[in-house]
């Protein structure tokens, strides 16, 4: 279930209340008249079935509540109520399968922005990857995978492609095109400093075996990226965010960026080149698979919407 809060102009309140009252996916409808201060108006609250959320939000946006008032959604972990159970039963489909597109846009839009926090995480992840490469530590490589924040912009690009949102694609593209080069440059400097001070020897990668998978690009790399992108988008659209950790661990994006810098300092330009190619293959595979999942889910959801009435009493 999701908790819906809508700030509504008084002249629209009765229309909104009537719509929510008659919608099968709505429970616990509450109206607070005259309590909203900025913008002024009434506050309408309801618990709605996740599988009905997209339809309800679209209807409220059609009444211009997103402009003249405000609409917020919040996930409910527990709802003990016969009315809530009835709403979930009446709403078509399963909550875990439902895509709330406005929620997805908001989430990917926020995670796709380049900012100091995003850059800091990406730098730390690349540095961890470089340490893992030099020390031949697969565990450290896995840690770098988990820390890396790059899936957010990649998911945003997929959403932008499917919904034709150029602004989202551009914002996410900036995050990646700025984030990775900056992180790789910082990593390069750190590796050079470590080599000059004798903290570690980049040439140690010649004998590494446990982390060789980082630069060994091939068909399997692309297949793994496709599977990871599909799993990641399924996790984002079904509120099963715990699965994202597995996605982070399965793709070789940040490790490849770190390996490329270590290999460059060591003079192993072949491995540096393969690492950069590995990075690009993984980025492309994730975006393609994530977009494909969204297209399938959107088509399925649109087909389901055509087969049901907008509301039921």
UniProtKB/TrEMBL annotation:
Lineage: superkingdom: Bacteria
Transmembrane segments: 116-135, 141-162, 174-193, 213-235, 242-266, 272-296
InterPro entries membership: DUF389
Keyword Transit peptide belongs to the record: no
Keywords: Membrane, Transmembrane, Transmembrane helix
Presence of the UniProt keyword Transmembrane in the record: yes
Protein name: Uncharacterized hydrophobic domain-containing protein
Protein source organism: Amycolatopsis saalfeldensis
């Amino acid at each position: 279930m999701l908790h819906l809060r809508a700030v509504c102009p008084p002249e629209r309140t009765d229309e909104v209340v009537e719509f929510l009252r008659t919608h099968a996916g709505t429970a616990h409808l509450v109206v607070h008249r005259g309590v909203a201060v900025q913008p002024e108006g009434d506050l309408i609250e309801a618990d709605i079935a996740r599988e009905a959320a997209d339809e309800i939000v679209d209807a409220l946006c059609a009444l211009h509540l997103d402009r003249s008032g405000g609409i917020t959604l919040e996930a409910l972990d527990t709802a003990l109520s016969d009315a809530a159970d009835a709403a979930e039963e009446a709403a078509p489909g399963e909550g875990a399968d439902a895509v709330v597109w406005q929620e997805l846009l908001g989430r990917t839009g926020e995670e796709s922005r380049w900012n100091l926090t995003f850059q800091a995480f990406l730098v730390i992840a690349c540095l961890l990857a470089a340490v893992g490469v030099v020390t031949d530590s697969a565990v450290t490589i896995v840690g770098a995978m988990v820390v890396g924040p790059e899936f957010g912009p990649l998911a945003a690009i997929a959403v932008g492609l499917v919904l034709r949102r150029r602004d989202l694609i551009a914002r996410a593209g900036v995050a990646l095109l700025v984030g990775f080069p900056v992180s790789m440059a910082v990593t390069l400097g750190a590796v050079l400093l470590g080599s000059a001070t004798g903290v570690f020897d980049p040439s140690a990668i010649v004998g590494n075996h446990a982390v060789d998978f980082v630069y060994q690009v091939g068909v399997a790399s692309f297949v793994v990226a496709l599977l990871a992108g599909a799993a990641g988008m399924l996790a984002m659209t079904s509120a099963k965010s715990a699965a994202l950790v597995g996605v982070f661990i399965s793709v070789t994006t940040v490790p490849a960026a770190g390996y490329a810098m270590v290999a460059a300092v060591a003079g192993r330009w072949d491995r540096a080149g393969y690492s950069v190619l590995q990075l690009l293959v993984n980025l492309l595979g994730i975006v393609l698979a994530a977009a494909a999942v969204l297209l399938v889910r959107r088509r399925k959801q649109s087909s389901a919407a055509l087969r049901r009435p907008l509301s039921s009493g």
